[in-house]
Amino acid sequence: MRYAGRWRSRITLGVPAAAALLLLVVPLVTLLLRAEWARIPSDLATPNVLPALRLSLTTTSSTAVLCLILGTPLAWFLARSEHRTTGWVRALLTVPLVLPPVVGGVALLMAWGRTGLVGQHLTPLGIQIPFTTVAVVLAETFVAMPYYVLAVEGAMRGLDPRLESVARTLGASDMRYLRTVAIPLVLPGIASGLALAWARALGEFGATITFAGNFQGRTQTLPLLVYVELERDPQIAISISIMLLAVSVLVLGVLRGRWLR
Amino acid sequence: MRYAGRWRSRITLGVPAAAALLLLVVPLVTLLLRAEWARIPSDLATPNVLPALRLSLTTTSSTAVLCLILGTPLAWFLARSEHRTTGWVRALLTVPLVLPPVVGGVALLMAWGRTGLVGQHLTPLGIQIPFTTVAVVLAETFVAMPYYVLAVEGAMRGLDPRLESVARTLGASDMRYLRTVAIPLVLPGIASGLALAWARALGEFGATITFAGNFQGRTQTLPLLVYVELERDPQIAISISIMLLAVSVLVLGVLRGRWLR
Amino acid sequence: MSRTAESPRWLDARVRLSRGAIDVDVALSAEPGQVIGVLGPNGGGKTTTVLALAGVLQISEGLIRVGERVWDDGSRPLAPEERAVGLMLADSLLFPHLSALDNVAYGPRSRGVDRRRARDRARAELDRVGLADRARSSPRELSSGQQARVALARALATDPQLLLLDEPLAALDPDTRARTRSDLAGRLAAYDGVTVLVTHDPLDALTLADHLVFVEDGQVTQAGTPAEVLSEPRSAYVGTVVGLNLYAGQGDSHGHVRTADGGLVVTTSPTEGSVWATIPPSAVSLHLHEPEGSPRNAWRVRIASVTMQGQSARVGLVGDLALTAEVTLESVTALGLQVGRDVWAAVKATEVRTYPR
Amino acid sequence: MSRTAESPRWLDARVRLSRGAIDVDVALSAEPGQVIGVLGPNGGGKTTTVLALAGVLQISEGLIRVGERVWDDGSRPLAPEERAVGLMLADSLLFPHLSALDNVAYGPRSRGVDRRRARDRARAELDRVGLADRARSSPRELSSGQQARVALARALATDPQLLLLDEPLAALDPDTRARTRSDLAGRLAAYDGVTVLVTHDPLDALTLADHLVFVEDGQVTQAGTPAEVLSEPRSAYVGTVVGLNLYAGQGDSHGHVRTADGGLVVTTSPTEGSVWATIPPSAVSLHLHEPEGSPRNAWRVRIASVTMQGQSARVGLVGDLALTAEVTLESVTALGLQVGRDVWAAVKATEVRTYPR
Amino acid sequence: GSAPSSADGTGQRGWSDASAAPLQGTVTVLAAASLTESFDQLKNDFERAHPGVTVETSYGSSSTLVQQVDNGAPASVIALAGTAAAEPLDKSLVKDTKNFATNVLEIAVPPSNPAGITSIDDLAKAGVKVVVCADTVPCGKAAHATFTKARIVPNVVSKEVDVKAALAKVKLAEADAAIVYHSDVVAAKDAVTGVPIERRYNTTLHYPVITLADDAASRAFVAYLLSETGLATVQSFGFGAP
Ligand SMILES: Nc1ncnc2c1ncn2[C@@H]1O[C@H](COP(=O)(O)OP(=O)(O)OP(=O)(O)O)[C@@H](O)[C@H]1O
Ligand SMILES: Nc1ncnc2c1ncn2[C@@H]1O[C@H](COP(=O)(O)OP(=O)(O)OP(=O)(O)O)[C@@H](O)[C@H]1O
Ligand SMILES: [Mg+2]
Ligand SMILES: [Mg+2]
């Protein structure tokens, strides 16, 4: 049910759309144009690139999984709640987006650190979170989860509530309805939420370096490596950034193109 | 059409939802608990706080407006396109999320800077973007627009295409359908997209500092001020951060509660 | 539907709640195996009643009891999935991501039947609505009538104690509808739960239901067996549905009934006081000139509409008395019955029945 | 619908496209002011045809021409908003964020009418469908029948050249339906565009349409005026719709018709070769014992269904010949006609009509 | 957890015992970002000398590192840019503090040097775009002091949050000059050109190394940093002697 639009509409809509696309694409294109492509292979052969890539991929995947299994139920509760407070909870969820990442990292340290609000109770159990890979995942989840929850909640609110009524009269519990109807139907929303959250986690820098430190192989993700290399050799940093972009475009393009939609 | 769920469902869904909420809320609560509340008023009376607050509000509002008028048409085109390439364009849109903010800033400089790809043609016209408030808006738009576009696109895909068919047989053009039916119906999606984008812009740090620099009243937004103050006195930084959070929760809570949904 | 307290019915429901502009107060009761037909004008509260029985809406007062179990007493409603209920709404509301087969199998699966047996059951149900060959289709690929049939199959696949069908046959073509109606009749006869069938089609109601309930403006205006309702309609709406001309009026002992509009009807079966008077359309004869002879009722009327129905025509008349006549197609041609023409309508007094209001 | 080339009709459409499993090929033509009734079994392609006319689907071959203007010739379709078309689908598809009034005013507003006049128009349209008092309601607050009425008002509010109504009356209660039908008849009579009316209700088709088109499996199986179709149905489906028993068979010069199922029918109007034979249900009489006397057709049959219709009953019969009989309610009681009972069905040879296939 | 523990659990203490029993364990070193290259070198050298020891390094801005330590991050040694940065540090955690390097300010200009900067006075020329660090960070404070001493009021277009941001503006020729540290100019290689600032206007920054853990390996690492070889390594990256 698609049509070739009329010219007037096309222009009045096409011009701003093109402008939006340009605003986003011009800097990326510049980055690619200014890169020294011949150097990229050797830049990427630097011994700390591979561990950082591996770490980035494992931590962001963990974050994505956490979003999926923890964030989906939260989105579900928010979506079906009609309580006045829901709006405020939703506003609260956006706080990690607003928080300057470094402050977010400090907050995480204050909460989970050895002397932190929660951390002080973990220390006697022999659990220390800062400077570990777990800390990276926590930091990434902290910044990325809101994107996921808000995207999925929005999608879930769009469901026809009568479908739920029918499913329930057919004998489906909350859980079963969620699993067999709601989630399959909001799969595009979940996909875009996951994409947002994963991408945000992949680019996460400020909270990670503050909360988890910058240890090669353990907490040094690609953005942290870029930061370090920027100090040493900006060209390496750009090479790594381009690889980061390539990885993300590839993962998102392939996943969304093939499986998710 | 809401029910009190059964206990088993409540628990199997409630526990992960609560975990998700805790992950996000614990650090924020810690931040609030650790703040020296008595000091906050005097901390906020520091003369550079007010200009930074004003600048943050003006630039993020500009960004929100840009998202609205440029991003909505882009989302619309993406939503109705069924072309194979759409998935890749969508993946491309997530790139600014993945790009470490500092690299994003570098890319912006390379594009719009004095010697940049686009900027070099602007310089003879007397237009210089870096170090200006315009640069702040550009940087914020660069990082925030993708959130907006992806959220709105998702919402628009959820529309029943037959509504469009009916609207068009009633004589509505593309534009009119978009304005009178599609946008009103995806208002929740637009609201949550705007909230995401606005919040992301409000917290934007890395790209801004790199591309726009840090000059009081002109390019020093709240997160930049927080970072600078963190060097001097972490407590001031936390006070300002708390104000930042309060502003964002207030704006989002009030806007979404009252008008948008 | 007044019942003595000592014989509680198997289904015993008094649905009271407010929806939009109207207050719904509908009482339903039935024994296992019975079919309650619910009829009424648009917006009367039929769907609302059905949703309350399903547990999708909660009653504010009243009681819903099925067998021994109280489903809702206005305070602690059972959730829909705790009620052994089957629901089909006027919109088919199929799960768009599941095939027709999996839509039908959804109920059995949710109620714990294993995948293979649920699918077998679903296949059998689809076969019964004539869609065995579309089992793999997604709902989007089905026409509206096909979707309605899948939804019907889905509601029937769970063998509920209470089966709620909201206009199940409205989207079906006459052929399929006739087949589905008789298939449904067969199935409902073998079914030991209670069925609540909302319909706008009097034929469905008369052929499928043991008991009819008319809901108008949230209230029950008439309830009874089809025969009772047919013989003594008690609202203008019911009259329209059963195809009788119905008048509220004041009767005297001489057999004169003065209708609310001021018309005069003569009957040989006088009832005094507030009465209903009925005239079967088939008892109305039309004449181009004032009739002489036996009919004691004769009104000057104008033809407002002529519609064909099967092998006969129904002629809508306005004038001294508004009424509908049923005549043969030949009469239409022979008398030149056209809209706007003035004619005489005659009815024998023996054909006019009256009964107390 | 073969037409000579020299007199092009005002609406001239040949809709060809593939949808799902079926290939649709439907030709429609009409002069201004005419109403085309489209009937057919579920999934036959009626909605598909309507969507193609509206421009929502594009034809792969064929032509859609209205007046002088070509809307679609399989290559450069006009967009829906460039066609002067009004569309109402079976799902009412109201804009959920607009009030009933604004839904109806949407068309006029989109076509450039100013707000006040659009609202006035909308109010008038709502009044005509009996919903003047619900103008401010949101679609969600309306019952399904009320929604359908708003959708109908919306489609009628733009005075299109081509009005497409897909089952407009299906969700209405009989009372509203009768009122809406006669109102629609009045409006369509005054309307100078062409109306395409998809319906499952033969009554709608017979009373509203000038021309009937039967679409089965994507193909037109019969087209003609209601009278033509009534008198000579050419498919079993059409037979069901018009209420006649219809048989395809081979006739000989002696008036014997051997039906496809092997039954034998005797007629006094013989046609040789491949023929259709029709028997009006009212011409079938039922007997508990083998009838002696004039009827030359008598079959041993079993009662499969008994349904009441107005003041008479329709009895479905299976056996030597499958047929439907229409008898009075009294006969049902007197003869004890119950499902499963074996009876004799008799038809006078003069009542059997045959015509070439 | 990766908390440093006693090297081998035998209770041995001090640098002098290192020869007796080979050092064991992990040393977690937090260092200012500007020390990245020098400390990578130190780490490699130290690990080669003590195969039983793993040195883990984490680089970030000095204030971030201090935050981490204050909030209980397990670190053995922290090396900061400027003694002022150490002030917020929880003093109860500090076992020992030593300065190990110095740094001086320098003007960084793009290799093309578009504004023709040859001395600090040139910064005051009209139209020259100068970036400096923010007043709250050491290099900003130092730059401010230098301008005062030199009695110039340059056209500062941005007060960058750190040296890296200031340097980036020059690398991309967005600014005509930036006041940064000598070590940064060295680290940037040919991406920028350094213009020295006369000694009388310049300000010297002292880099402290703070020992936080008590174990032998950590103390051995600090001792190695302060040894002649260690200091030489640091100085080879553009830092001055303590
Ligand atoms: N979106 C679709 N994709 C694929 N097949 C479809 C789609 N919509 C309808 N069909 C199929 O096309 C055929 C024609 O459907 P259409 O909706 O035109 O039937 P219809 O005559 O309107 O039937 P009904 O009386 O049930 O409304 C049906 O077999 C249907 O299954
Ligand atoms: N969600 C709602 N909110 C408010 N009012 C509603 C809602 N749904 C229905 N109503 C109103 O409640 C009344 C009863 O509606 P209901 O759907 O029960 O009618 P119905 O008898 O099923 O009619 P129909 O024959 O048209 O389906 C109507 O007046 C309708 O406008
Ligand atoms: Mg209803
Ligand atoms: Mg259809």
Q: Into which percentage range does the β-strand content of chain A fall? A: under 5%
Strand content of chain E: 15-25%
As a whole number of angstroms, the C-alpha radius of gyration of chain A is: 21 Å
Report the principal-axis shape of chain E.
elongated
* Text of the CATH class of chain A: Mainly Alpha
Total strands of chain E: 9
Low-confidence stretches of chain A: 1-5
| SSE pattern of chain E | EHEHEEEHEHEHEEHH
The SSE string of chain A, one letter per element, is HHHHHHHHHHHHHH
Shape of chain A: globular
What are the segments of chain E in which pLDDT stays under 50 over at least 5 consecutive residues? 1-18
State the helical fraction of chain E: 25-40%
Give the SSE map:
The complex is a heteropentamer, with two copies of chain A (261 residues), two copies of chain C (357 residues) and one copy of chain E (242 residues).
Chain A: H1 7-34, H2 40-44, H3 49-80, H4 85-93, H5 95-98, H6 101-112, H7 119-122, H8 133-157, H9 161-169, H10 174-185, H11 187-203, H12 206-211, H13 222-232, H14 234-260
Helix pairs in contact in A: 3-8, 3-11, 6-8, 8-11, 9-10, 11-14, 13-14
Chain C: E1 11-19, E2 22-30, E3 35-39, H1 46-54, E4 61-66, E5 69-72, E6 85-88, H2 100-110, H3 115-128, H4 144-156, E7 162-166, H5 174-190, E8 194-198, H6 202-208, E9 211-216, E10 219-224, H7 226-231, H8 236-242, E11 245-251, E12 256-259, E13 264-266, E14 273-279, E15 285-287, E16 297-309, E17 312-319, E18 323-328, H9 329-335, E19 342-347, E20 353-356
Parallel strand pairs in C: 3-8, 3-9, 6-7, 7-8
Antiparallel strand pairs in C: 1-2, 1-4, 4-5, 9-10, 11-12, 11-14, 12-13, 14-20, 15-19, 16-17, 16-19, 17-18
Helix pairs in contact in C: 2-3, 2-4, 3-4
Chain E: E1 25-32, H1 36-49, E2 53-60, H2 62-70, E3 77-79, E4 96-109, E5 130-133, H3 138-150, E6 156-160, H4 163-171, E7 177-181, H5 182-187, E8 193-196, E9 204-211, H6 216-226, H7 228-235
Parallel strand pairs in E: 1-2, 1-3, 5-6, 5-7
Antiparallel strand pairs in E: 3-9, 4-7, 4-8, 4-9
Helix pairs in contact in E: 1-7
The complex binds adenosine-5'-triphosphate (2 copies) and magnesium ion (2 copies).
One adenosine-5'-triphosphate sits between chains D (19-22, 40, 42-48) and C (140-146, 173).
